[in-house]
Amino acid sequence: MFEGGSSLAGGLSKTVDASEGVVKLASELEIHNAAIDMLGTVTEVIKPITPILTVIISLIDEIKKIRDNAQYNKKICNSLFDRVINAEAAVKILEQRIKENDEKIHTLVYQKNVIKFQTSLDEIKKYIEEISQFRGIRKYIYANSVKDKFIELTEEFEKCMRDLNFTMLVDSEEQRRIDKKSLDENLYLMNMNMNQMKELFSNRFNIIYQEINNLNPESKDHKSHLKVYAPKIDSSKLRDPPSGPNQRRGKSKQIVKKIYKGGIEVARKPFVFPEKDENLQFVHRYLSILEKLHESPNILQFYGLLTEDNKSFTIFEWAEMGNLKKVYEEHDVPIPWDTKANIAFDICSGILFLNALNIYHHDIRCENIMMTRNREPKIMNFHFSRMHGDKTVNLGKSVVDMINWMAPEKMLEHAAGKQGKSIVVPYTQKQEIFGRIPYKEKSLNDILDHVMKGEREVLSSSPDSLLPGKNEIQEGLNEIIRMAWSHDEDERINIDEMYLKLSKLSKRVELGQSPTLHPISEYSPRTYERILTVEEGIELHHTNDPQKRKLAWECFVTYTFLGSSLATYWKGFYLWEGYYNDKPISEEQKADDKAKAKELFKMAADKGNTDAQFYYAISLPKSKDSKPDLTKYLKMAADNGNVAAQYNLACLYLKSKTSSNQDKEIGLGYLNLAIQNNNEKALELKKSLNLDIETSNDE
C-alpha cells in the first residue's frame, strides 16, 4: 500500500529531502543529564554559541514578519512578540559578552541553555504562524488548546531566560495582565468565528491551498518545473444568448455576453498575451490560480481561455447588474440597509477565503465588485493581487485612482512622494458598506488634508432606517465603518471580527439570504567545544560518511533532549533506518529500535513536523483499528506538502472499496498534487485507473 520497496522508507528518496537516513541508536544508550556533556561536541577555532545566535537572529526576523502579516489573533501574537523583543535584547547582551570574551558563555552547560532558548523561540514562531492565519487556526479544534499552548510557551520562554541569567527580562505582572486580556478577547472571537467560518471552506480547501502555492513564484512551495496552462474553452460550447449577439458592455463595448454549455451566462472579454515569452508562464499561472478560486461563490468565476479567429478571450461569469459602483450610481432608490448588510457580508466572506489561501487583493472597491441579477457580490480584478510574502506591488499611476480608499498611513507615504516606490494599498472592503465613493467631490490634495487631520465622511441615515429592524442594521454597519476608519492602524477592526459582526447583521434580514460559502563575525583563535546545530547535523548526514553520521547522531540525540521537534524526527529516523550504528544489528534490536522510532515520530508529528507525520503513519500496523490514525497523520503530512503522503493518501481514498464519491474526489485531488510534484508512482496510478487529471506536462 505504501510507496517504497523493501523498506517502508524505500521510495522516499525523491520526495522526502530530510528522509534519506540518519545515524542509529545503540540499544543500551539512554540520555541522562550527565551524559549530555559528552554528546554533540566538536573542537573548532570558533566561538561556540555564535552559530546558534545566528539562527536565533534569523528566527526573530521571521517572527517579526509573521506577526506583521497576522490576520487573526493579533493581540495574542503581540503578547508573544513582547517576549521576542526581550529575546532580541538578550541576543545583543550575548553578542557583547562574546566580544568581551566571557568564558562562562562558552561552556557546554551554557550552550545547552542557549539551544533551549532557540528551541523555545522556534516553537513560538510555529505557534504564531498557526494562530495568525486561518489555515493554521483550524488545527486548534478548541479555543482552550490555544490558551494551554500559549501558557506552555510563555512558561518555557521564562525558564530559558532565567537559565541564561536574564531575570531582568522575565515577564512582569503587567505583562501577565496584558496576556490575560489578549487571550480573553481573541479566544472569544475565535470561538465565535470558527463555528461561523467552517461553512466558508469545502473539504478540498487544503488541496486548493497547495495547488495555488505550487503556482506562486514567491511561495516556498513553488514548483518552478511546472509548465502550467490556463484551462481552454471549446468555442463550440459557446452560443449567443436568446436576446441576440449584441448584449455588450465595457467602455468600448468589447465585453460580450454568451451562453456556455447550454445554460451558463458568461462574459467574453478580449485578452492580449505579453509579447515577451518569459512572461507567458506568469500569465498562465495567474489565470490558473483564478480558475481554482471557484470554490467560493463570492469570487467572480473564471472558466478559461478562448481562442477564436487568432484572437484570445477570457471567459468569466456574467454579472447582470455590472459593478457595485454602477448599481448605486444608476439606481434612483438608495440600496436598503438590509441589502447592504448582505452585500458587505458576502464581500467579507470572499476576502476571508482569499486570505486563507494567502492571496491579498489590495484593491477591494466598488468598481471591482460585480453584482449578479440576485444582487450577489462577486470579487474580481486581481491585477494588483499578490500572494502573502510576495514583493510589494508597484501600483504606479493607479495610486491616484485609489486615494479615496487609502488608509491615513498610506496617504502619508503618497504625500511624501512615494507613489512610484512600492506602495501597498490596505484592505478597503470596509468603505464599500458606505454606498458611495468616499470624498467623491474632493480633490486629491483636499482628501489628503481631510483624512490626515483625522476627519472622515459624515455617516447619514436613509429613509428605510425608520422601518422596523432597519435602524439596528444601520447602526451596526455604521459601527463597523467607524471602527474601520480609526486613525490608529492598531485600533482598526480585524477581518475576523468584521466577519462576525456582519454575519450577525445579515441574519437580521428577514427576507434576504444568509450566504453559505463554500551571516559570522570574526572569531577569537581560542579553541572551544561547541554543540552542533541541527542543521549542521543534517549536513553531516548528507555526506554519507559513517564517522560524520555518528556526529550527526550525537547532535540529534542532544537536541531531542533539549526539545527540538526537528531533531526528534531525525533521531527517530536514524533509529528506523539503523544509521546510528555501522555494526550488524539483531532482528530483536531492529524491532526495539523501530518501536522507539515510532514513539519519536509521533512526538515530532504532534509538534507539526511533516516528515514525522508521514513516518508515523507508515509505522502503524496495517489493520482496521489503525486506519483512523493512518488517515489522520497521512492527511496532516499531505496537507503540509509531503509528496509521498499525498500519493499514499490518494491510494487510500481511490483503492478503498468503502470510499464514497466525495472521498474519491478528495483522493483525485491529492493524486493531482503528487503528479504536480513529479511523483512517478502517482502518474502510473493515474494511467492505470484511466483518470483525467491535470498534469505538469506541456500541452
From TrEMBL:
<dbReference type="InterPro" id="IPR011990">
    <property type="entry name" value="TPR-like_helical_dom_sf"/>
</dbReference>
<dbReference type="Pfam" id="PF22215">
    <property type="entry name" value="MLKL_N"/>
</dbReference>
<dbReference type="InterPro" id="IPR008266">
    <property type="entry name" value="Tyr_kinase_AS"/>
</dbReference>
<protein>
    <submittedName>
        <fullName>6658_t:CDS:1</fullName>
    </submittedName>
</protein>
<feature type="region of interest" description="Disordered">
    <location>
        <begin position="234"/>
        <end position="253"/>
    </location>
</feature>
<keyword id="KW-0808">Transferase</keyword>
<keyword id="KW-0547">Nucleotide-binding</keyword>
<dbReference type="InterPro" id="IPR051681">
    <property type="entry name" value="Ser/Thr_Kinases-Pseudokinases"/>
</dbReference>
<dbReference type="GO" id="GO:0007166">
    <property type="term" value="P:cell surface receptor signaling pathway"/>
</dbReference>
<dbReference type="InterPro" id="IPR000719">
    <property type="entry name" value="Prot_kinase_dom"/>
</dbReference>
<dbReference type="InterPro" id="IPR001245">
    <property type="entry name" value="Ser-Thr/Tyr_kinase_cat_dom"/>
</dbReference>
<dbReference type="Pfam" id="PF07714">
    <property type="entry name" value="PK_Tyr_Ser-Thr"/>
</dbReference>
<keyword id="KW-0418">Kinase</keyword>
<feature type="domain" description="Protein kinase">
    <location>
        <begin position="194"/>
        <end position="517"/>
    </location>
</feature>
<keyword id="KW-0067">ATP-binding</keyword>
<dbReference type="InterPro" id="IPR011009">
    <property type="entry name" value="Kinase-like_dom_sf"/>
</dbReference>
<dbReference type="GO" id="GO:0004674">
    <property type="term" value="F:protein serine/threonine kinase activity"/>
</dbReference>
<dbReference type="InterPro" id="IPR006597">
    <property type="entry name" value="Sel1-like"/>
</dbReference>
<dbReference type="InterPro" id="IPR054000">
    <property type="entry name" value="MLKL_N"/>
</dbReference>
<dbReference type="GO" id="GO:0005524">
    <property type="term" value="F:ATP binding"/>
</dbReference>
<dbReference type="InterPro" id="IPR059179">
    <property type="entry name" value="MLKL-like_MCAfunc"/>
</dbReference>
<dbReference type="InterPro" id="IPR036537">
    <property type="entry name" value="Adaptor_Cbl_N_dom_sf"/>
</dbReference>
